[in-house]
Specification:
The complex is a heterodimer of chains A (271) and B (299). By secondary structure, chain A is of the alpha/beta class. Chain A contains ten helices and ten strands. Chain A folds into two domains: 181 residues, Rossmann fold (3-Layer(aba) Sandwich), CATH 3.40.50.300; 58 residues, no CATH class. Chain B has 299 residues and is mainly alpha-helical. The longest helix of chain B has 31 residues. The chains are: A alpha/beta (271), B mainly alpha (299).
């Protein structure tokens, strides 16, 4: 029913801030319709990467292609039009709007003389508004937040706000969905819900999901591929099973000493 | 009693006109965080186009009116696109606001030069006949101002709360970066706000020059400037506030003028200072204005 997921190709992306290199030659590919996680310690460059992918940062070098279309250099609203949706780490809802209005924003395109058409309530504007509301309701039902539509967004508890945030990103009908720590600050049973939601987005809607998350159980449980970042560089990309046993990854997470210790304990079986 | 009632009607009518101008300032502030000090000059420019189309080129009012409204809207969009947009990239909203003072001065100088010592009429259809009701007499033009302004204000509020664009604008006012990530074109939102502000200013201008002024002359800009205290009294980020602020400024001006002999100790012409005194009093009690939202900043 929705457009199938996009292939995301990130090649040699380098971002520098006043001499500090936040990302250096980052390269990986997320395949259409898969769940691809990006992990790494704090400060590894995950947020910078997301900001590049949504058009906020312009990298010094490199290219990002969504189904072959170059994304770098586009304004954020054009990136959205390209089929990239984003949910936020802190679920930044517009507090002054209702939940439904927040979701309608995801449907918003001020194209084709929309201001006047909407103001004069021309038939086609009315039709497109009806379609937008229907789509919003459908997405809200998909995520189980349809009973919240009439509420002011300011009144949402944190967990609900995170779900509405994902719904808002889905309302833009993305082919690539960027999820920034969807399980952050959640209880165990809420995390299970988040996991199922992400699975359903990829499986039922064939949307490519790029996931940044600290909860390793969640990441390893649902991702097809995992890219590990450290100090702005890709340590490795591979399926979860291989990544967890990668020496360099363990080093990144536990430090060199930790890796050395693990290596020692493996070379010297306990007596 | 009758005197008070007629002053209240006149104050409300004048206030509704101020509210139209103030609303333009608020809409621009909400969509781009820029305070548009050039609003009086947009009013003068558009009203001048209408007045000169009628008085100097012999066009009918109903042709001259849309010409003036469109001219001010186009000029406002140009100011936004050519000048203000440059500041948007760096979020230098204070610099952009101060620049609009420059735009105001330049534009007013040119409009004043063209008006010279003439008094241009706009050929508006509301006459100066006095309508009598409830024992008071009110000029027809004042009633037209009140009715038309109220209608425009209601339409505007509906538009802001019902339309797609209204939702986009309220979202942009809250968080421009997230709004742009939702696919909202910030440039469009801002340009639309400027166009609406220009158009509203001209609608107000036509009523200001209809009565009590005999027509458009260079003194109208001082009247138009009172929209600024109106916007600030109401709270710069609140459209409801702009309407309330406009009414308060209109009422204070008319009441102070009406009871002038009792306020003689304040000197003559105090009604022109009254809106600004009122603004100071309101700001002392409520720094964000009557309806403004005090930004809660976590430190």
């Amino acid at each position: 029913m929705t457009a199938p997921g996009a292939r995301l190709q990130v090649s040699d992306v380098t971002v520098r801030f006043a001499g500090v290199t936040a990302l250096s030659g980052v390269t990986f590919t997320a395949e259409p319709g898969t769940i691809h996680a990006v992990i790494g310690p704090n400060g590894a460059g995950k947020s910078s990467l997301f900001n590049v992918l949504s058009g906020i940062y312009k990298p010094a070098e490199g290219s990002v292609r969504v189904d072959g279309s170059e994304l770098i250099g586009l304004a954020p609203h054009r990136v959205t039009a390209l089929g990239v949706g984003r949910a936020f780490q802190n679920a930044s809802m517009f507090a002054g709007l209702t939940v439904e209005e927040n979701l309608l924003l995801g449907r918003h395109r001020l194209g084709r003389g929309g201001v006047f058409a909407a103001g004069l309530r021309l038939p086609y504007a009315r039709r497109s508004e009806r379609e937008a509301r229907a789509k919003v309701r459908e997405v809200a039902e998909f995520l189980g937040v349809d009973h919240l539509l009439a509420l002011p967004a300011a009144e949402l508890p944190y967990g609900e706000a995170k779900r509405v945030d994902i719904a808002r990103a889905l309302a833009t009908e993305p082919r690539l969905l960027l999820l920034d720590e969807p399980a952050a600050g959640m209880h165990t049973h809420e995390k299970v819900e988040v996991r199922d939601t992400i699975r359903r987005i990829a499986a039922e809607r064939q949307i490519t999901v790029l996931l940044v998350e600290h909860d390793m159980g969640l990441v390893m449980g649902i991702s097809e591929q995992v890219t590990v970042l450290d100090f702005g560089q890709v340590v490795t990309t591979g399926p979860p099973g291989r990544v967890t046993s990668d020496e360099a990854v363990i080093a990144a997470y536990l430090g060199r000493a930790g890796a050395a210790q693990k290596a020692r304990s493996e070379s010297q079986p306990p007596s | 009693m009758a005197q008070l009632l007629s002053m209240l009607v006149e104050g409300a009518s004048l206030g509704a006109v101020y509210a139209l101008v103030a609303l333009g300032i608020v809409v621009i502030y909400k969509s781009s965080s820029v305070v548009n000090f050039a609003q009086p000059s947009l009013l003068m420019f558009g009203t001048y186009v209408t007045a000169s189309a009628y008085s100097l080129h012999g066009l009918s009012f109903w042709v001259a009116l849309p010409l003036g409204v469109a001219a001010a809207a186009v000029l406002a969009v140009l100011v936004d696109r050519v000048l203000v947009a440059r500041f948007r990239r760096t979020q230098a909203v204070v610099a952009a606001s101060i620049m609009t003072i420059g735009v105001d001065v330049v534009l007013l100088t040119e409009v004043d030069r063209r008006i010279g010592s003439q008094i241009l009429t706009t050929g508006d259809p509301w006459g100066n006949e006095v309508v009598r009701f409830l024992g008071i007499g009110v000029a027809e033009a004042r009633i037209a101002a009140l009715v038309v302004s109220a209608l425009l204000l209601v339409l505007f509020q509906l538009w802001l709360h019902r339309s797609d664009f209204g939702v986009a604008m309220r979202a942009t006012a809250e968080d421009p970066e997230t709004a742009s990530l939702m696919g909202i074109r910030l440039g469009r939102v801002s340009a639309t706000a400027w166009a609406v502000a220009g158009a509203l200013a001209v609608c107000a201008g036509l009523f200001i020059v209809a009565y009590p002024s005999p027509g458009l002359d260079t003194s109208v800009e001082a009247v138009a400037l009172r929209a600024l205290p109106a916007a600030i009294i109401g709270g710069l980020d609140s459209t409801t506030g702009a309407i309330a602020g406009g009414l308060l400024v209109g009422l204070s001006e008319v009441l102070v003028r009406g009871y002038g002999e009792h306020l003689a100790f304040l000197g003559q012409g105090f009604e022109e200072a009254a809106p600004y005194v009122l603004m100071l009093v309101v700001l002392l009690a409520r720094p964000a204005g009557l309806f403004g939202i005090r930004e809660a900043v976590r430190v």
